[in-house]
Amino acid sequence: MELFNNIDKVAIVTGGGSGIGKTAAEALSESGATVAIIGRTLEKVETAATEIQNKTGYPVKAYQGDVTKSANIQHFLKAIYEELGQIDILVNNAGTLAPGTIDSLDEEGWDHVMSTNAKSIFFMAQAVVPYMKKQNYGRIINTASVAGEVGLSFSSIYGTSKAAVIHQTKQLSLELAPYNITVNAISPWFFKTEFNEKDLEDKDFLSTVENRSPMKRLGQLDELKSSYLFFASAGSSYVSGQNVFVDGGMIVYGL
């Protein structure tokens, strides 16, 4: 399994303090990588880093950062590089949601979602690419969503932002291929996290979500680990520009 270990690699995970980001960070740590978790709330990412490190035995570092601000990105990436010496893997996972349709959403909501979900992907990638080019190696993994492929009735903006993530994945894979840097995306359906647990307490909504998948259930967070691990490892060296749906078959579900 040498192809799928990340020993001696350094990975960055944005939005890694909980949910899918924390799961991705844990998977990379389990594979031997030194992981740097980025989040807006330092206490939250410090707690996550400690929990993961205690579980895996590999170093996990916590950094406070705002991925919607290019200057802030440059600041914390410099700190990571100076402390850890390299940057091999980037998981762009930071995300947010503004529920509502075209009748109720405003410019502030649009800007917040697009900055967090789409703008951050580009500028995080732009900031890590010089480090990856220097070593002629890199893995960039973007957390997209099934909403980037199909419509959701409860948010006009979220799906648009995730469609942008999917297209950026394709575009950046083209631009970075000559430098042995792969760029891929993972598109989950519903996995219970702090992000959506309140919505899933509504039994009718939960039933709708479960019935939308042929498997008739939510995903379990551990079921995401292998996808992140594959795209992060040497085993995916000839795979780039791809978007994998981890959705229990939701995306192909017809009548």
Helix content: 40-55%
Number of separate strands: 7
Distance between the termini: 40 Å
- Our count of helices gives 8
CATH topology call: Rossmann fold
Gyration radius, in Å: 17 Å
Descriptive account of the structure:
- It is built from 8 helices and 7 strands.
- With 255 residues, it is an alpha/beta fold.
- The protein has helices spanning 19-30, 42-56, 70-84, 107-135, 158-176, 197-200, 203-211, 225-232, and strands spanning 10-14, 34-39, 60-64, 89-92, 138-143, 181-188, 243-246.
- It has a 7-stranded parallel sheet with strand order 3-2-1-4-5-6-7, sandwiched between helices.
- The chain has one domain (2-247): Rossmann fold, CATH 3.40.50.720.
Helices and strands in order:
Layout: E1 10-14, H1 19-30, E2 34-39, H2 42-56, E3 60-64, H3 70-84, E4 89-92, H4 107-135, E5 138-143, H5 158-176, E6 181-188, H6 197-200, H7 203-211, H8 225-232, E7 243-246
Parallel strand pairs: 1-2, 1-4, 2-3, 4-5, 5-6, 6-7
Helix pairs in contact: 1-2, 1-8, 3-4, 4-5
Could you give a quick summary of the protein structure above?
44% of the residues lie in helices and 15% in strands. The mean pLDDT is 94. The chain is α/β, with parallel strands linked by helices.
